[in-house]
Amino acid sequence: MSAIVQDKEKGAMAPVANSSIERSAAYYRLKADIEDFYYHEADLLDDRRFRDWLDILAEDISYFMPIRRNVKFGQHATRENTRIGEGISWFDEDKWTLTKRVEQILTGVHYAEEPLSRISHMVSNVQIKAVRPNPEQPAEVDVISRFLVYQNRVEYETYTFVGRRNDTLRATQGTTQANWKVAKREILLEQNILLAKNLTMFF
Amino acid sequence: MAVKSDFDQLVDLNRGFISREIFVDADIYREELDKVFTRAWLLVGHESLIPNPGDFYTSRMGEESVILCRDKKSEIHVFLNSCRHRGMKVCRYESGNTSLFTCPYHSWTYTTDGKLQGVPLYRSLYDGVLDRDANSLVSVARLCNYKGSIWATWDKDAPDFITYLGDAKVHLDQALDCRDGREGGSEVIGVHKWVFPANWKFAAENFLGDTYHNPSHRSVDMIGIGPSAAAGKKGRRDDELEKAQHVWISFPEGHGVHSAIQPDANEYVESFLDNPVLEQYFRHCFEERKRRLGEQAKLLPFVGTIFPNTSYHGRQPRGLCAWHPHSPTSTEGWRFFLVDKDAPAEVKDYLRRYYMRYSGPAGMTEQDDMENWLYATAASTGTVARRYPFNYQQSMGAFATDHPLGGEVSTQITEQIARGFYRRWTTYMQGGDWNELLGAPAGNRQAAE
Ligand code: FES
Ligand SMILES: [Fe+2]
To answer: What CA–CA distance (Å, rounded) separates A88 from A84?
Structure first.
């Protein structure tokens, strides 16, 4: 394929960008900053620094993983996912329960995580959907991303969880890595019946 | 195929040994699907999942997919979810509302009462003589709407559901009735479905009243996740039964329950301290129930299993489980979470949050159960491991048969319930008649109903 054709295709792709935010230097700086934050978060979890992970969650965090259902064409928007604040989901949690989950692992006798699983979090497809008030002074950012979480447990147990996250991140002071907090997280796992015995990990 | 006497050896209740083969062997598993799951009453769902005419909810019975459906006239049906033409799964939606099920393969259509209606090119290809009745969706043989919970069996000779329940009825009632003692009135607020690599009987046995496995929940008991946890109470639930006499009961039909009898004074024990609205509501329900049921209100539920694969949690948290076999070493767990339909919104909201942190694969308590079931299954598949049976000798003979609650009643933690479950499992596997399946000694011909 010639360079000219490639350029043409690229050109054709460009307008379907992920959001209307202007691609300024501040925007790219912010995006890189958020990606760094996600890699740092993945390290905290995979290094089993669970208490440190709790520290990057806002006090008023909403952490939600709906159950996904098989519905008829045309009903996805209204019926595919269980809803936050209603009925039963996989997770519909606040910081109190997330802290309990961490405390439970740290007892050393939570047998579903004792011995601890080996877990790797991969985060990709990071896209900024909205910045409030603006990319130069971001206080709150809506970000979507994909995750792949691999778990190997004891000897032969392996599970792969793939899906997307819809986050709202909050800058506490400035925008350095340590100062982002997760204020809202919706986790869309691409499964209907959970194909795993447990969800002992964080997403 | 195992012969009749093999099962007496595999399940040796006199000595208290049960072979691991019945938990891992593929042939025994196939036989189980045939001899247990096509005869026993199985939980299919709940009427609140299909409130309106045309509503359907796809469910399971054993390994098979079924459609739970309310027809145009509001009558409830359960059908095998497989087309009579070439077997296509007719409905692959989880739930919805329809006037017709259209098979995706060659477009035969079925009405909501299961009748074959549309057959493309009926006149030219079938000479207009295809027997529609004989090609309707396969219906279960018997169905029962018991206080909103829907049960079914493939065996037309099965006794009615109430007979099948026997004396376990009053215990199951406690999960299905309103907290204030009114009959029924519950609704399902959500369903968990997940697959775990363990034999289904580990899950069934867990809820029979295996109180002995309490130590495996130590982590959650240490941190406290109950409805009074923020107020400083440890444990995974409030001990509403702290002054009660616990009873573990094995029923002749194979069911088993762990319930408790409150002392005569039957005082409310504070629970739900973390939310004053809940605390007040449950105190009110407790007093109301006492007023309504009198002496009978002293009986409170804990857990139980209705033979073979339906379990319930009666109080904190509250719900019904079905353990659907997938293979000897794999099971699909379903949990239907229950609340009183007319409970205040804040009560329902609190309960659903509590259920989520307690139950199922994301539940802090039950994650540890699943770990046990998996590794107990996995460590029992080896050739050498299979030579050594499981031990079921706990509290042998320590039960009464003259208790007003019926069955074999133990007042100490016991494996008598598990022994009773496998005693009945053996009768099914030996092809017993319904008198025997309900617990009458072999050859006793008294009427089952
Ligand atoms: S398999 Fe259903 S119409 Fe042919
Ligand atoms: Fe348990």
So the answer is: 9
Residue A123: name the closest of A31, A18, A26, A16 by CA.
Answer: A31
Domain at A18-189, CATH class: alpha beta
Model ipTM? 0.95
The CB density around residue B128, as the number of other CB atoms within 10 Å, is 9
Domain ranges of chain B: 9-24+162-448, 42-144
Chain A neighbors of B218, CB-CB under 8 A? 107, 109
In A56-201, alpha helices (H)? 76-79, 95-106
Please give the distance, rounded to the nearest whole angstrom, from the Cα atom of residue B206 to the centre of ligand 2: 7
Cβ <8 Å between B223 and A90:
no
Where does the pLDDT of residue B440 fall: very low under 50, low under 70, confident under 90, or very high at 90 and above? confident
Domain layout of chain A by residue ranges = 18-189
More confident residue, B131 or B449: B131
pLDDT in tens, B293-329: 999 999 999 999 999 999 999 988 999 999 999 999 9
Q: What's this model's pTM, rounded to 2 decimal places?
A: 0.94
**CATH class of the structural domain B9-24+162-448:** alpha beta
pLDDT band at B224 (very low <50, low <70, confident <90, very high): very high
Q: Would you call A112 and B191 a contact, using CB atoms and an 8 Å cutoff?
A: no
Distance CA A195, CA B363 (A): 16
The whole-angstrom separation of Cα B130 and Cα B232 is 69
Assign a CATH topology to domain B42-144.
Answer: Rieske Iron-sulfur Protein (2.102.10)
Residue spans of beta strands (DSSP E) within B88-169: 95-97, 100-102, 109-111, 116-118, 142-146, 149-153
Alpha helix ranges (H) inside B114-168 = 122-126, 161-165
Strand (E) or helix (H) holding A153: strand A137-153
What's residue B417's pLDDT? 98
- Which chain A residues have a beta carbon less than 8 Å from that of B196? 196-198
- Helices B345-358 and A95-106: crossing angle, nearest 10°? 20
| A176-to-A35, A36, A173, A180, A199 alpha-carbon distances in Å | 12, 10, 8, 7, 31
Residue B318: φ, ψ to 5°: -130, 125
